[in-house]
Amino acid sequence: MADNSATQEQHYRIGDFAQLSGLSSPTLRFYEKEGLIQPQRTTNGLRYYTKLDLSWIKFLRHLLGTGMTIGELKQYVAWRKAGDQTIPQRLELLQNVQQRFLKRYAEIQHNLQILDDKVNWYEHKLAGSINEQESFANYLETLGHAE
């Protein structure tokens, strides 16, 4: 890690930044190749990163976590670089990703509910509080849950 005096911002070499960001060095290079990040370069051509880069990486990881594709990220980054006149496009893109994510999130919640119900069904079966003949489908019906 290079610390450039108290008056300058801290610079991180790729290995240190990889550790700090939780990404591997090859992933950081891939993001750079795809235009998602733009590290600074020393006069010797070595990349370095700053705290601002770390904030940007965290934001990108949040977007990726919602299911945004690399292609969508690239488009978002291009629009961001183009300036505030692209805010309507960025907003529409983020809203579309948000809608997809919410749909997937609802599916995940439903799957978790069925898993919880199955665990509870087995626990009740073992405890003898459910008739041995009661099917899981009937159990779900009594709970008002759909398969």
Automatic annotation (TrEMBL):
It comes from Loigolactobacillus backii. PANTHER family: HTH-TYPE TRANSCRIPTIONAL REGULATOR ADHR, REDOX-CYCLING DRUG-SENSING TRANSCRIPTIONAL ACTIVATOR SOXR. It comes from the Bacteria. One of its GO terms (molecular function) is DNA-binding transcription factor activity. Signal peptide: none annotated. It holds the Pfam family MerR_1. InterPro entries: DNA-bd_dom_put_sf (IPR009061), MerR-type_HTH_dom (IPR000551), MerR_fam (IPR047057). This is MerR family transcriptional regulator. Transmembrane segments: none annotated.
